[in-house]
Design a protein that fits this description.
Blueprint: E1 14-18, H1 21-24, E2 43-44, E3 60-61, E4 79-80, E5 86-90, E6 97-101, E7 107-111, E8 117-122, E9 128-132, E10 144-148, E11 154-157, E12 167-173, E13 179-184, E14 192-197, E15 205-207, E16 218-223, E17 229-234, E18 244-249, E19 257-261, E20 272-278, E21 284-289, E22 293-296, E23 304-307, E24 322-324, E25 330-334, E26 337-341, E27 349-352, E28 361-363, E29 369-374, E30 377-384, E31 392-395, E32 403-406, E33 411-415
Antiparallel strand pairs: 1-33, 2-11, 3-7, 4-5, 5-6, 6-7, 8-9, 9-10, 10-11, 12-13, 13-14, 14-15, 16-17, 17-18, 18-19, 20-21, 21-22, 22-23, 24-25, 25-26, 26-27, 28-29, 29-30, 30-31, 32-33
Length: about 425
């Protein structure tokens, strides 16, 4: 049964319940307006590793869902550097566009991205990194690393470790000079190697990933400083479950300590490892596809479920990225809709586009009303404090209601 801060939902066909709506949700706050031996050639825009393309730089206003907005579906690599500055890939996975927002996601401006880009890691307003494929046709295993210093107008391929081959499994950069990548050479123990650069990829130092008898298939890196970081190892997925282990380093990746794992019952076996993001040395978040969002407050040693309402069932089994700018404030995306939390993932509020009720609506006053469902989640209950200009999810009944009536400020009747 879905959790809600407004109490428990009855499964009866005709439901009458007193909701603590006064304390359940508040009206959304008004948004604040807005080198190798030879240097490789620059890539201007989304290129066939040479040819520029034209990309409109007109801002896309996402706030009015009723008008239908131009923002395409998010395609991963959602990354906020502050509550207002963020980046994401959006559009078709085979040719996504790099998007930038400076107002917390209310509007986005496109910029070119390398062709066949798989993931990005922006470290400042102008600087970032991209992992891309050499060939097109739906490649999802990158083997090229590009760098931008002008917010994506040009991308420069950088030199990978001379001894490396295979594909880039994971990357995490702290700045335009310092970062880590894993290069994978197959599966099984020792199949991947960790590399670090401190000079903008002019040189790389090989480091060791945690040793284990488990044939880890994938690694996810997350560093907070040149010394402190985490590596999440994932095994073979199947039937909604996956073996996992989380390791921590205090010396930049030279040595690792296991701090949580499924074998210790300190990480859930259910769900597939998808996104790892530590906001502080203590507060971190883990998104498990076909699972939920997990939270730690002790640096990754213990994890609890944070919340998956109202993102489920809209999310189906998948979110598109997870990014926290501090211990409490974070963002995620489902389709073309951006969500924000300010309470450590206990609840989520849509940033843009605005939610539009898809079912019954009832008002207790000219400003306060309740509605049933929105596109992607027909069961959710939505609350408004401003006469329907903005709607905020407040819970998911166990059944979909076909009628709803607010009989006062705190009492709601619904039929299912």
């Amino acid at each position: 049964m879905a959790h809600t801060t407004c109490g428990r939902w009855s499964g009866a066909a005709i439901l009458g319940l007193a909701l603590a709506l006064a304390g359940c949700s508040s009206a959304p706050s008004s948004p604040t307006p807005p080198p190798a031996a030879a240097t490789p050639p620059a890539h201007s825009g989304a290129v066939t590793r040479g040819k520029p393309v034209s990309v409109s730089t007109a801002p896309m206003d996402m706030t009015d869902g009723a008008k239908g907005n131009a923002m395409p579906a998010f395609a991963g690599s959602l990354q906020f550097l502050s509550p207002r500055l963020g980046f994401a890939l959006a559009g078709p996975p085979a040719s996504p566009t790099l998007m930038k927002t400076v107002n917390g996601g209310r509007s986005w401006t496109p910029a070119p991205a390398p062709r066949d880009v798989v993931s990005i890691d922006m470290v400042a307003a102008q600087s970032g990194w991209a992992a891309a494929c050499v060939k097109s046709a739906g490649c999802s295993v990158p083997s090229v690393l590009d760098r931008t210093t002008d917010a994506g107008t040009q991308w420069h391929p950088v030199k990978l470790p001379a001894s490396a081959s295979g594909v880039i499994g994971s990357m995490d950069f702290l700045s335009s000079r310092v970062g880590w990548i894993t290069m994978a050479f197959g599966t099984g123990p020792g199949a991947a190697t960790l590399y670090r650069t401190t000079d903008a990829a002019q040189s790389w130092t090989a480091l060791s990933l945690p040793s284990s008898s488990t044939p880890w298939l994938a690694w996810r890196l997350d560093f907070l400083s040149p010394a402190m970081g985490w590596a999440l190892a994932s095994g073979q997925p199947g039937a909604g479950s996956q073996e996992k282990a989380l390791y921590q380093t205090a010396d930049g990746g030279r040595s690792w300590t296991e701090i949580a794992s499924t074998s210790q019952n300190t990480l859930p076996e259910g769900g597939y490892s998808d996104a790892l993001d530590f906001a502080t040395a203590a507060a971190g978040y883990l998104y498990l596809a076909r699972g939920t969002v997990m939270k730690t407050t002790d640096g990754g040693r213990h994890w609890v479920q944070a919340a998956n309402d109202p993102l489920s069932p809209e999310a189906g089994p998948f979110l598109s990225g997870l990014s926290f700018v501090n211990a409490k404030t974070g963002f995620t995306a489902v389709g073309a809709r951006l969500w924000k939390t300010v309470n450590g993932a206990s609840s989520w509020t849509p940033v843009a586009p605005n939610l539009i009720p898809a079912g019954a609506v009832s008002f207790a006053s000219p400003s306060r009303g309740l509605a049933v469902g929105f596109l992607g989640n027909p069961q959710a209950l939505l609350l408004t404090h401003d006469g329907g200009k903005h709607w905020t999810p407040v819970g998911n009944p166990s059944r979909q209601w076909d009628r709803v009536e607010m009989a006062g400020q705190r009492t709601v009747w619904g039929t299912a």
